[in-house]
Amino acid sequence: MAATEEEFDFVVVGSGSAGSVVAARLSEDPKNNVCVLEAGPSDAHLFIHVPAGYIKTLFNPKYTWPFKSEPVPGIGGRVIGVTQGRTLGGSSSINGLIYNRGQANDFNNWAQSGNRGWGYADVLPYFKRGERRITNSVDAYHGTDGEQPVTDLSWRHPLLKPFVEGAQELGIPFNPDYNGHSQDGVGYYQRTIHKGRRFSAYRSFLHPVRRRTNLSLRTNAHAAAILLEGKRAVGVRYLSGGPGGTERIVKARQEVIVCGGALNTPRLLQISGIGPGNLLNDLGVPVVADLAGVGENLRDHYAVRMVAQVRGVNTINELTRAPRLWGQVARWMLGLPSILSISPSLAHVFWKSDSSFSTSDLQFTFTPASYMEGIAGLLDTIPGMTCGMWQQRPESQGYVRAKSSDPFTHPEVQPNYLDLDIDRQTQIAGVRLGRKLLATQPLASFYDREIQPGEGVQTDDEILEYLRTKGSTVFHFIGTARMGPSTDRRAVVSDQLKVHGIDALRVADASIMPTMPSANTHATTMMIGEKAADMILGRAPLSNE
User: Fold this and answer.
1) How many of the other CB atoms lie within 10 Å of CB of 28?
2) Is 28 contained in some domain?
3) Is 476 a catalytic residue?
4) pTM of the model
5) Which residues in the chain come in under a pLDDT of 50?
6) How many angstroms separate the CA atoms of 207 and 336, rounded?
7) 135 & 164 share domain
8) Could you list the residue range(s) of the whole structural domain that residue 290 is in?
9) pLDDT tens, 470-480?
């Protein structure tokens, strides 16, 4: 039986951080018929909307792509879980809820490498357009009328103030707004939480307009191939209901926009005939566009934790156990500040691995809790405080490669963590600073003993071994459909996000980032969606006024 065919103006693959923004903006004009394909189910599960519920959803295969890396040489051949969101909102429905844009020079460097219109002055208006900053103080760096709520901490723990004061005693200045003039300093994270609930990109942008008559939103719709006629994308073939499901085709009169994320987008391009010719030949996929960069340039933040046992105060470890937990649940249900309505990271430090640097290259997170060694999100039984750390701009590069033309076969993911010496040395310096942050005088009355890495870990070699054996992903994958001019043989899309050599096909997600921003990637990916929508609609770029 022939696959059912339908026709729209635009087909958007993925409803994540960028896809939800793109679809919402394109469908603002009732003349545009937009179809969104989401491989996962709806986001109806309560734990998606309760911020603390991320612990329950992060590795739930119903709502995630449970991908695993290949053995990574730089970390002793360990295999790392590289989960991605697979539900309405994509990874923004399961992430750590931090709103962090990065440094101005991140984007200026993109522009200087040949991507016109992607400097900081160009992208700031797009950050602002989608933002609804909810605070008593707003300046020229923030938006107040957008769809995405961005809020400050509503729940404070007694350990937060001494942590911030201790960082200041180390010479790190207090910074009330790391998304403003400068990122460097210590302070409190801004979050995508409002009224005690997670606001994913889907909940912020698409859910309020889901009943538009020109918008067709399809869940459990797994993209199997981009349909190409010659060198033009004309639609998407997808399977409704997963493996063995009903094959359907949605045609695109104008464009196909791929927003699958840095692990799924390159795989979809490859099995559709767009990618390195030798890989496609091995897969038995006819080569339509031989683009060597598809799937290359994979980068991710690799994090490790410093943990200290705490005395004299109840930490989140105790507050999540009965009977204290029931009080926290009651507070959440009454709309009061509660541990259920917080992100896993509360305070931040952005600082330098070397005092001679002009700006930070390390990011730290502080949580008044301790976690089971090597297990993301699982609280320990002892009271503790944790300082997580990662290098902001890793240089080590990996890749994503389809293993089969079967769209349900997981891709080969090789992050190549700690492959380069610069990354190893930066991370070693980060561990040393993280230990100092937990052992400052303002925290002394609460500090009992160091649990991780432990007093036996002191030399550079010992710290490096700790990094190799205990570090893991921050789930910030970028770069596998890198933006750059056509003269760059490793570039996949132009600065208009058009796939080189293919008409009517764009990519708009974290995979287009040429280099890693000094930030959690969700905010930047939403900005990419905003810019992509204006490019697709032929609108003049927003002015930074």
Assistant:
1) 14
2) yes
3) yes
4) 0.97
5) none
6) 25
7) no
8) 1-42+80-148+199-298+398-410+477-545
9) 999 999 999 99
